[in-house]
Amino acid sequence: MFSKKCRRLVATLVTLMLASASAVAAYPDRPIRLLVPYAAGGPTDYLARMFGERLGKVLGQTVVIENKPGANSIVAVNTLLQAKPDGYTLVFAGLATVVLNPFLYKSLPYNADSDLAPVGMISSMPLVMLVNKDLPVRSVAEFVDYAKKQPGKLNFGSPGTGNPLHLAPLIFAKESHIQMQNIPYNGTAPAILALLGGEIQTVFDVVQSALPQIESGKLRPLAVTTAERNAALPNVPTMAESGYPGYDAKAWFALAAPGKAPPEVLETLNKATRAVVSEPGFAPSLEKLGLMPHPPMDFPQIRKFIDGEKERWGSVIRDNRITLD
Hints:
Elements: H1 4-25, E1 32-36, H2 43-59, E2 63-67, H3 74-82, E3 89-94, H4 95-104, E4 116-125, E5 127-132, H5 140-148, E6 154-158, H6 164-176, E7 180-184, H7 188-196, E8 202-206, H8 207-216, E9 219-224, E10 251-258, H9 263-278, H10 282-287, E11 292-293, H11 299-319
Parallel strand pairs: 1-2, 1-3, 6-7, 6-8
Antiparallel strand pairs: 3-10, 4-10, 4-11, 5-8, 5-9
């Protein structure tokens, strides 16, 4: 028979367990902080705010956006890891946060596999392969033929090193067996100006930012880099339609929680994210930004997708010995 002291101890433990279970079941019972690793006012910030507003409605709580730009999203992740891992601080994670940084930094201050828990895919950011209107090519096939006739003489522009706009052309060069040299610029705008001036031969740019130059006729789109055509450029073929069926290189965004967050909280966030991206009005809102909605995914599907992305981007980073340390 239990002593009075043991009975009190058991009663206390039961009370704590019930309180803990109640706290998890009540999630969320207060506002949620969503860290955005990009500056306020840009397209990614707008996307995060649009998603956060919808997420808040699904969860029945306010989602407060907090911009934490810097160091390829490392600043935002560090802020996330300093907070209590209870699901009330989340991060608007991107391709760099989850996949690219572990390959690019030898001394990354977080472990993407254990410190982060992607709980829902949100959207994809497709790219488009651009050339100057005066370049004598009108298709990907013609560009490849043009490059092979001038081995080592073609350059592509990118906004620095280690980002999708730098890596996507390298994947294309490998698959098409052509040689292109990267010319890094301090941002996308200078790279586009160089392309307009004929200093370089191609830029792989985000569809949204490329649209004005395409619509003006100053730049010619050869292909979009996603497996499906883009609603903003319906007449532009995909790389797959252009002869490269395995090519699919795009940036993307996901909602991520701390890796140590309670499983019940992670499940709630996954269901809420799937509800948001399934809303009838969500896809049209993304397409106005040149983005594409991501299909709703459960945890096994998210893990399979990210594993594939690690293989896709990791191989090109390793092959080209790219590092940001």
